[in-house]
Every structure is written in C-alpha cells, then in structure tokens.
Write a structure and sequence with these properties.
About 70% of the residues lie in helices and about 0% in strands. The chain is elongated.
Length: about 70
Amino acid sequence: MNNLSFLKLSKTINILVGTIMKTYTNLYKNIFTLENLKLAFEKAKKGKAKKYYVIKFEENLDEELKQL
C-alpha cells in the first residue's frame, strides 16, 4: 500500500467514523511494510543524518526496521 492509498483509506475511515462505525482488520500488514518504514526513517533522519545514533541505525537499517 503506497502513501496515496493510505491517505485515501484514512480519509474514508474519517468519513465513516462520523456516521457509521466500521471495524477494519489486518491493517498492520498493509500499513507497516518495509517500504513504508524506510520512507518514515528517511523523513525522520532529516536534520539528524550526522548524529551517531542515526548513522548506527542506518548501518543495519533492514534488521533494525524488522525489529520494530
């Protein structure tokens, strides 16, 4: 699921919450993909790329993200 699909889903959920409550299951596997986690890491490291803890995390990025 890419960011645009997630935003559409989020907007749909927000509309439904105002009128009808609906339960969505199994969203974690669609939202928390390795691709989305890498994108989140790239956004989070802006302005901190030279920090020691960011460098260490990025050295082993795939393993660190899988632990999340």
